[in-house]
Amino acid sequence: MKKLIAIAVLCLSFAGICSLFWYTEWRYSLPTPKPAQYHAVQTGEHIDISKAFNPGKKAPVFLHFFNPDCPCSRFNIPHFKTLADTYGDKINFAVVVQTKDKSYTEAVIKEKYGLTIPVLFDTSLAGICGVYSTPQAVLLTEDQTLYYRGNYNRARYCTDKKSNYAQIAIDSLLASRQQPAFNQYALTAYGCSLPGCKK
User: Fold this and answer.
1) Comparing C-alpha atoms, which of 189, 197, 196 is closest to residue 32?
2) Residue 152 and residue 126: Cα distance in Å, rounded?
3) For residues 146 and 140, is the Cβ–Cβ distance under 8 A?
4) What pLDDT, on a 0 to 100 scale, did the predictor assign at position 126?
5) CB under 8 Å to 159, separation ≥6 — which residues?
6) H or E element: which one contains 114?
7) What is the pLDDT of residue 72?
8) Which residues of the chain have pLDDT under 70?
């Protein structure tokens, strides 16, 4: 009898863990709702970021919208750092932190995530770029027109190499090609809503 109870408890525990994992995966697979006052910014539109970020060198700009309290943002950091390391000599990278937590500073973010690129706290950049969730990638041409705004990858942990949307956009821009025709998984926002993590 004790053996049966132990087996039943183990089975229930396993089922509970599986259910929790499934629920978490399902929740993060849902698109982030657009805010009521959302202003869409179209590809090819000029975006003036000069008040918030002066990169120094004349080159395209890649803004990584990041919330340290958002699980999706944390899963995405290794992939983003790979992009910054790979293309940092050709593109100006910056992290745009989106959080209400005042304990985060540029030094804290850089140390915690091993970053050497600029870390910005200007929340106006999200509205200027049409971003309403994290993590999101924004790639601007050298003359600051929007080339790509969207997700990094279809997979939550950025493990699907065929859907490396942000990298595909970077490669296309650097090769002076027209923006690829991305699918809904690239352009529909997923993740945590702004300004706080709501997922």
Assistant:
1) 189
2) 17
3) yes
4) 94
5) 153
6) none
7) 85
8) 6, 8-9, 11, 14-29, 195-199
The dihedral of CA 120, 125, 126, 131: what is its sign?
negative
What CATH number has the domain spanning 61-193?
A: 3.40.30.10
pLDDT for position 27: 54
Burial (CB < 10 A; 0-12, 13-18, 19+), residue 124, is: exposed
Pairing mode, strands 146-150 and 119-120:
unpaired
H/E stretch holding 47 reads none
Q: Identify the helix (H) or strand (E) that includes residue 99.
A: none
- Listed by start position, the domains of the chain span 61-193
pTM of the entire predicted model: 0.85
Taking each helix axis as running N to C, give the angle between helix 71-87 and helix 165-174, from 0 to 180 degrees, rounded to the nearest 10.
20
Which residue(s) pair with 140 in the sheet?
61, 146
Determine the length of the chain. Answer: 199
